[in-house]
Methylenetetrahydrofolate--tRNA-(uracil-5-)-methyltransferase TrmFO
Amino acid sequence: MTDKLHIIGGGMAGAEAAWQAANMGVPVVIHEMRPKVGTFAHRTGSLAEMVCSNSFRSDDDEQNAVGLLHWEMRAANGLIMQTADKHSLPAGGALAVDRDPFAETVTARLRAHPLVTVEDEEITALPGEGHWIIATGPLTSGALADAIAAETGKEALAFFDAIAPIIHFDSIDLSKAWFQSRYDKGDTEEQRTAYLNCPMDKETYDAFIDALLSADKAEFKPGETAGYFDGCLPIEVMAERGRETLRHGPMKPVGLTNPHQPDVKAHAIVQLRRDNALGTLFNIVGFQTKMKYGAQTEVLRMIPGLEQARFARLGGIHRNTFINSPTLLDGEMRLRSRPNIRFAGQITGVEGYVESAAMGLLAGRLAASEILGRTVAAPPPETATGALVTHITGGAEAKTFQPMNVNFGLFPPVDLKGGRRNRPARYKAYTDRAKLGWQSWLEQFETVEAAQ
């Protein structure tokens, strides 16, 4: 009888790992502590719940590394991408999803799978026997984090991940805000108007920055440090780096024209993106924050168009734990000191929903192959998935290891000249090469697709 694969954590990585392994014919048990044990950020007991942004970022599989990762996961029958496509929302060239139906669908499909069992329980110690994947994500429970730290002999690394506020659409003043994607990007009118824009003149921007810098912030517990991942910096931390930082980041005013004042160029622009299919909720793009709740409402209502904003969810801050994967994991994502345990998802030091799910996909397939007695290598580093796993399991510098999004800088270079002017051709060369490599890697598998 085929051994079971046990997965700790039912987030993006754990859900995808379970799906992949079960479809290869391996029985899977998902151990998920929610809803019995809650976290600061989660609201439900659903698997694959989205707790930060509702965006999977760029869906361009020819010019963008994360779009390429989307393509690879779709080609591998990925549950996360199938479900994201089913519940997608307009977002210009990005892939955004309706978060609650997304998580509910992932949960329903896994619970209905004949080879998947979901146990609502917390695992607090490292298992000594059996085949396991730890995919507990950024909110690994304290007991399990302690067990991991005790096993590795190192202190767990941590940074703080901030959540952006969500606003009720009917409280936004449309006499000041307007719908437009940057540079009118998108193939349909819905895509070209996927973002809601709130303009600021210089005086308003300066007052906003002053308020942001002086606002009350959440306090850290004794002994905690604030080592943020640069791709998810709180807005107040960005403002502390310089008064113009936000104007060159989430508040950049380029590629947008205010129809209310077409002859006036905004000094800065705040963008909001639809957060659900009904269009009743919008999140403020790039506005993760650790301001206290009272300060948030006061400061954010300084944004033109949001003076009467009603908040469905205020921003927050939570601890994010990850291991020093380059020193702890082998090339197949196994813990060197306990090869029966693999790690997947954000706890390995990848950042983002898509990257986490991709590491779950890979860990699930590698674990299932081992259980079935097959020899399967990790995907080539020329692929997006392969570039990520190569980075975290040895390509990164262990002494300075930090969470990483997928990007072309992780790929072996292509031999093209021309500098920046030839960038589109270079990116296309990366993606063309990756797709061939990924298809070749997938040919190793004889995936048994269960009828769903």
